[in-house]
Design a protein that fits this description.
homodimer; alpha+beta; two-stranded antiparallel ribbon; AcylCoA_DH/ox_N_sf (chains A, B); FAD (chains A, B); AcylCo_DH/oxidase_C (chains A, B); AcylCoA_DH/oxidase_NM_dom_sf (chains A, B); oxidoreductase (chains A, B)
Chain lengths: ~600, ~600
């Protein structure tokens, strides 16, 4: 059973991602080290003791639909209420609306734990928090007053309604329409698919944020508006009143996250209300809906990255526990009597160390991204701009690398279990199934790669990425300067990987400058992976340097060295794909037509 | 829906794996080119039109157990009977027992198609054919006369009973026991788990091959005997009579291959028969059971490798069809109106080309392995020994590389589908689930790697692997000599990969010679992958060279070049893991304790 790695999470926040320095510099108000520890420790308890035990039943029974009402798995509504009452929904929200105003780093750290406990459960709150962010940034004072307090407390949940059958990554072609009414409200008509927690029995009301198109809107993404559409219209007393004309038409039958209802939502077909049309209120300006969504999209992407970390952590714990107790054969050098635990076999150790290193690397990247978000709020002017860019640069890598790691590590976890891994009751298979959605939703990892290469590399004319690489080189230099032989070849390996990152970056920047768009896009995914591996190597080294000296520190160095000498060498081939793979790819594309 | 790639399969058999030369040299009796085509074409029709349409219902309904009786999915018993009546069970068996005596290559080619149609369906017949092989090689004349004709025709199916809860990879510790009886029969007592098609409703009788231990057997693997234990005892008239004391106690709830019943079998608890004990007949000699199993184990491993190829092929077809029709965004250079098909996006093209290249590489490796099996039977003396060694060397690579490819390609297939990939009805998710067992059963891929490094590299004092590498170098040389610029950097890339293979091989041989067992085992899995990638690069080139000149040939060259310039460069990092990864791995192993 999952046990939240509170100590490791706290260490990564403080010594790898930058929370320690931030606290020391007083960047986060009166947030103290003690409070951080108390929050993490209580979150760890809740995730391990309350959420994780309900994960399996959630998977087995799933969410069910009857007469437009969704029933979540047994125990889940009570679990949600206990979670909200614990204040976990309000960590980062503004105090004005009942939030605790804590740094985003604590949000992602707790998110990791909820998702390790049960990804299907945690994805609901994730979306509510995204809706809170969008509403906070763009909603009218009235909308905020009516909705935010209940959404921050968790009394009501939110949902995000973007996708339509023909409009997934390309929102510009969506068809859901909105009509103006004289009273300043709108009526929404259309169908949305893949709406996570679009309907459920956790809360008395659900606040849908819905993208739709006005009759006179310009074509494409510049003609999309964002609306707030509550399941129940809110009365003057602030309580839910009449049913709005929106309902869940069907649930998807999915590979994983079975406890999470994935809804097809129908707006305005007249099933509820006197006249057809779901009543909606505009958020932000007409035709500026996509900009409103972008506010929360970066954070949502980072939140999905956390799901990758979370699954990887849970899979690693499970596999390690199994490998320690399962005996089979005799490993080389095994001195015990009888069979050795399979963890003693070098091949099994390779899998487990790879799982550990990738998990810690992905965690460090996502936390560093959250730190940049926090610093962009805690600073001003040029500094704030720098940190906002840093967050912007790291977001696609955090989302894609961590979710790929989630899938890969979950797959290794199944493999470590041998035949037992294929049996559902073991639980490794559930992680393998749940993990698979994360590289897809909130923008596929391919979309992230396009974003990284075409929009993030050019930040500050390339200075942002150059600055980050310089920072990482500093870490490699410190490893060399430590003169600690336990690091083995780490310094040299890391330097070589950073050379690969530099060369690939240079090449992509040149391709873009020369208008060779297809060449750049052909290398985007290998580049993204290379980026993630380079950060993994560097961040593991940063952690090892921070704790060098004592027993845990020796373990960090050993894992860092393993990653340097066994994992990150892959960057040479990835760089190669970026700088010389495009021609053969584009030449072979005709094969596919 | 899957459509068997008959032309591609025939091409690979003939021009890459060696069937063409074998036929030309008259190695396979009166087997003609026409007959090969007729067999492949009819198998393709059966797989596409009969099996594939029943895959989804098999997955959804699965196999169920009631009162020790298993019900397979609707339509499956009839499907099995049609398949057996088509003669597909008897392709390679001896004509004396009703078999067709055809080369093993046709067996694996047809196996690929059955498994692409439905892996859950095809795994049953695979095990019957393994049982036929073991019985043919080691059974007494009487046992063969009684059982083989019905097992060859498919009227009865077989099952393989090896695993026990505490004895998976390590069969030496099994506990199922056998007692001698005065009439020359034995009584079997014990429990076996993970018994595929241990009980079902396809046939009137099931012939279990069971490993068990005699009371006076030496400890470990030298004390295991193999027994034939029919579900129904066979009467003098050759028909099933009394029920034997063996039954299916429970079915596993699995991640995938739901239609395939995975049984816990109980032997000799007295549920059936007058006195407890399942009646069994010895196959081969007492305490030599493991040797009997090894007869069929290599072929079973190759058959599982085929499952990897099969899933990869099915996943590639499905993803390609989707990517051609799904439109989203505008790819660079897209000239059409509106959104472009996603296949036009370079990132999607990269996934699809990778899927294609890995599938064809895995197919070529498995077919080449089957060709070596055939040649070992079609030749004599030194030549036969050479081919037997070649088959032996290629088997672990065929099993492990192809099954890893199955998982990776199925995962890419989900990704290409975006959100639809996570919806079960699309079918991509089923392939992702089904694929995951293949790297585990019939010896995990980690076990294959140990086998490859410790038992296969030393064949003929290293001459066998050296000879293979020389052969592959010949292919790289031919690419260079072709002077066809469409090959791009293929010759140089392939040569570099073969240098990696050579260097890693040398290093492992030295480590083994010096008794550094742990060092060698630490690198076994990366070595196995490196081996598979080198063969993929070389065999794609061999195919491209064979068809150079015409339209299809240009496509082969383009895919070969893509693999050379975008996939096989990974071998440098893999070689690196072999030759310098062990120290950091073994140093970090303490972390896991």
């Amino acid at each position: 059973m999952y046990k939240a790695p509170v100590e490791e999470i706290a260490f990564t926040l403080r010594h790898v991602a930058g929370l320690g320095a931030g606290l020391a510099e007083g960047r986060f108000g009166d947030l103290s080290d003690d409070l951080v520890d108390a929050i993490l420790s209580e979150a760890g308890r809740f995730a391990s003791d309350e959420i994780a035990p309900l994960a399996e039943i959630g998977d087995r029974q799933g969410a069910t639909l009857k007469d437009a009402a969704v029933t979540t798995p047994p125990g889940w509504p009570a679990l949600y209420r206990a979670w909200a009452e614990g204040g976990w929904n309000s960590l980062t929200a503004a105090p004005k609306f009942g939030g605790q105003g804590l740094p985003h780093m604590l949000h992602v750290a707790t998110m990791e734990m909820w998702n390790s406990g049960s990804m299907a459960f945690a994805i609901g709150p994730t979306l509510t928090i995204g809706a809170v962010e969008a509403l906070s940034a763009h909603g009218s004072a009235h909308l905020k007053d009516v909705y935010l307090p209940k959404m921050v407390s968790g009394e009501w949940m939110g949902s995000m309604n973007l996708t339509e059958p023909h409009a997934g990554s390309d929102l510009g072609v969506m068809k859901t329409r909105a009509e103006r009414r004289d009273d300043g409200t709108y009526r929404i008509f259309g169908q949305k698919i893949f709406i996570t927690y679009g309907e459920h029995d956790f809360t008395d009301n659900i606040v849908h944020l819905v993208l739709a198109r006005l009759p006179d809107a310009p074509p494409g993404t510049r003609g999309i508006s964002l609306f707030l559409v509550p399941k129940f219209l809110v009365e003057a007393d602030g309580l839910p009143g009449a049913r709005n004309d929106v309902f869940c038409h069907s649930l998807e039958h999915k590979l994983g996250i079975h406890g999470s209802p994935t809804c097809t939502m129908i707006y305005g077909d007249g099933r509820f209300g006197k006249e057809p049309g779901a009543v909606g209120w505009l958020i932000g300006e007409e035709n500026k809906g996509l900009a409103c969504m972008f506010t929360m999209m970066n954070n949502a992407r980072l939140a999905v990255g956390m799901q990758g970390v979370a699954i990887a952590e849970a899979a690693t714990q499970k596999a390690l526990a199994y490998a320690r107790q399962r005996t089979q054969g005799r490993a080389p050098g095994w001195q015990g009597s009888g069979m050795s635990p399979i963890v003693e076999h070098p091949d099994v150790a390779r899998m487990l160390l790879t799982m550990k290193a990738l998990t810690q690397g992905a965690r460090a990247i996502t936390y560093a991204c959250a730190h940049a978000v926090d610093m962009s709020h805690a600073t001003e002017g040029e500094e704030a701009r720098h940190w906002a860019e840093r967050a912007s640069l790291l977001t696609p890598v955090a989302k894609s690398f961590a979710t790929d790691v989630g899938v890969d590590v979950a797959s290794l976890g199944v493999q470590v279990h041998g035949g037992m891994g294929f049996i559902e009751e073991t639980g490794a298979a559930r992680l393998y199934r749940d993990a698979r959605i994360a590289p897809i939703y909130e923008g596929t990892n391919g979309i992230q790669a396009i974003d990284l290469v075409t929009r993030k590399l050019p930040l500050s004319g390339g200075d942002q990425i150059a600055g980050l690489i310089a920072e990482l080189r500093g870490i490699a230099g410190s490893v060399g300067a430590s003169n600690d032989t336990a690091f083995g070849e780490t310094a040299a390996r890391l330097a070589a990987t950073l050379d690969d990152l530099q060369a690939a970056t240079d090449w992509l920047e040149r391709a873009l400058a020369e208008g060779r768009q297809a060449d750049a896009l052909a290398g985007a995914t290998p580049y993204q992976r290379l980026f993630g591996l380079a950060l993994t190597g560097a961040y593991l080294a940063r952690g090892a340097l921070a704790e060098a000296g004592d027993g845990r520190g020796r373990e960090r160095i050993a894992l860092c060295r393993f990653a340097a000498e066994n994992i990150i060498a892959e960057t040479a081939a990835l760089k190669d794909r970026v700088v010389s793979g495009a021609a053969s790819l584009l030449a072979a594309q005709t094969l596919l037509e």
